[in-house]
């Protein structure tokens, strides 16, 4: 419910279309803070935020430069948020005061996904971090697996950097696609938001449907 309200606000902001200098002065710091916050607390739909920023950048007077800045800000923010969350998680592993952050991370990782993340981490190491950033709901289980494996912060950061770059590029491309299809910025933002929501929610809905189907099948077999 909260995510839908945030997405609606993004579309409303795009409708107003302030001056280009105002967009840059307010938009880039807001983009950075929203992505960092969304990395720490998985409530803000950060992919939609980046895609919306890319749509707005397309309609500015120097789109290549604006898109480059959006990419840089989004990548840095994603990396910063991931490293901060991992640092807080390591405190949770090592101390009682940080246990609340560790519990919060654990709440966003289904047990079966955590088991898969741990197995993949053992087989592929740092490369798993890049893929986890691109998969919907894949980041938290892999991060938790790294915490349980007691990876040092430096090792985690080596994977978090390329992962942030790949993530920012992916959602910026979604925004470019949505923005290029419509003449008005708000229309492109709406298209990009809808597309990112579909991408982020479809896997979770599919897993839920599979679990329900498997549960019904077991019930029929035992009944």
TrEMBL record:
Compartment list: Cell membrane
InterPro entries: DedA-like, VTT_dom
UniProt keyword Cell membrane present: yes
UniProt-listed Pfam families: VTT_dom
Keyword hit for Transport: no
Bilayer-crossing regions: 31-58, 65-88, 163-182, 188-206
Chain coiled-coil ranges: none
Main location group: membrane
Membrane topology: Multi-pass membrane protein
Keywords assigned: Cell membrane, Membrane, Transmembrane, Transmembrane helix
UniProt domain VTT: residue ranges: 53-175
Family label: Belongs to the DedA family.
Database matches in PANTHER family: INNER MEMBRANE PROTEIN DEDA-RELATED, TRANSMEMBRANE PROTEIN
Protein's UniProt name: VTT domain-containing protein
Organism whose genome encodes this protein: Streptomyces niphimycinicus
